[in-house]
Design brief:
This protein has 2 domains: 3-157, Rossmann fold (3-Layer(aba) Sandwich), CATH 3.40.50.720; 166-252, ProC C-terminal domain-like fold (Orthogonal Bundle). Helices cover 55% and strands 12% of the residues. The protein is built from 11 helices and 8 strands. It has an 8-stranded mixed beta sheet with strand order 3-2-1-4-5-6-7-8, sandwiched between helices. Helix 7 packs antiparallel against helix 8 (195-214). The longest helix is centred in the middle third of the chain and has 29 residues, at 162-190. The two termini are 32 Å apart. The mean pLDDT is 96. Residues 162-261 form the Pyrroline-5-carboxylate reductase dimerisation domain. Belongs to the pyrroline-5-carboxylate reductase family. InterPro entries: 6-PGluconate_DH-like_C_sf, NAD(P)-bd_dom_sf, P5C_Rdtase_cat_N, P5CR-like_CS, P5CR_dimer, Pyrroline-COOH_reductase.
Length: 273
């Protein structure tokens, strides 16, 4: 299978590197194009055999599946100018949440799906979120599910939970990285520990926490109960968090959904649906 990647920015680059590292695709299986060609050339220098294209039409013709990894408002123009090259046997995978599979299908006669990845996929872990188009063949569903399964745990979602699922899976690493940095900042400002030591300890704690959850040794609730002894130090810390956290995460999801609604209005205006 020849896979084209349109856009080698953050997520496009992560998919490319993860596919190669997992062994799911070899560099010779990958065709890439980027608005700034130097960014694509960086990957060619790193991975011998990878092909960098100057024009999108040629990449599409030479690829079986095309991953569209560009900004939401750039997708309409890309599809409109290239729709004749997306012949019936090909497959489009869009990775952005504000553009629905139905919108992509309206400009392409091939199999279409949306797969929202996560930065955690770079470590061959985490989740990828799938939504299939009405004309997407079973063969392409199985093929891309298997491909993404080599770098993530694929999960099918409905359109109604696209944003919140993406918040948890795709934005979640940034949210919890921010909280961890604040955790470290609090430790260094309130105690004698230095930032480097606190960062190492916090990072290793998170890795260990992830392993406990991955191996299903404890659930989230059971894990908190195991650590939080009644009347102990952890309990005091939890009480302090409860007093301060308030509506933090409620506000977070309200903010992301507000921005998502703005993006939806713009993409619906472009696609006319």
């Amino acid at each position: 299978m020849k896979a084209g990647i349109v856009g080698t920015g953050n997520m496009g680059g992560i998919l490319l590197e993860a596919f190669i590292e997992s062994g799911a695709l070899s560099p010779s299986d990958l065709n890439v194009i980027n608005r700034t060609k130097e960014k694509a050339e960086h990957f060619r220098k790193k991975h011998a055999g990878l092909t960098v294209y100057d024009d999108l039409a040629s990449l599409i013709k030479d690829s079986d599946v095309v991953f569209i990894c560009v900004k939401p408002l750039d997708i309409y123009e890309l599809l409109e100018h290239s729709q004749s090259y997306f012949t019936k046997e090909k497959c489009i995978v869009s990775i952005t949440s504000p553009v629905s599979v139905q919108q992509v299908e309206s400009l392409a006669g091939c199999s279409c799906m949306r797969v929202i990845p996560s930065i955690t996929n770079r470590a061959l872990s985490g989740v990828s979120l799938f939504s299939f188009g009405s004309r997407c063949t079973k063969e392409w569903q199985d093929a891309i599910w298997k491909l993404m399964g080599s770098i993530s745990t694929p999960v099918t979602i409905g359109e109604d939970i696209t944003r919140v699922s993406s918040d948890i899976v795709s934005c979640g690493p940034a949210f919890f990285t921010y909280l961890t940095r604040k955790f470290i900042e609090g430790a260094t400002s309130e105690t004698e520990i230095d930032e480097r030591t606190a960062t190492i300890l916090a990072s290793e704690m998170l890795i260990g926490l992830g392993e406990l959850l991955k191996k299903e040794i404890y659930s989230l609730e059971a894990l908190q109960e195991k650590v939080c002894v009644k009347g102990g130090i952890t309990g005091e810390g939890i009480s302090a968090m409860e007093a301060e956290i308030g509506e933090l995460f409620h506000g977070l999801f309200r903010a992301t959904h507000k921005k998502f609604d703005e993006d939806l209005r713009e993409t619906r205006h472009q696609f006319g649906l």
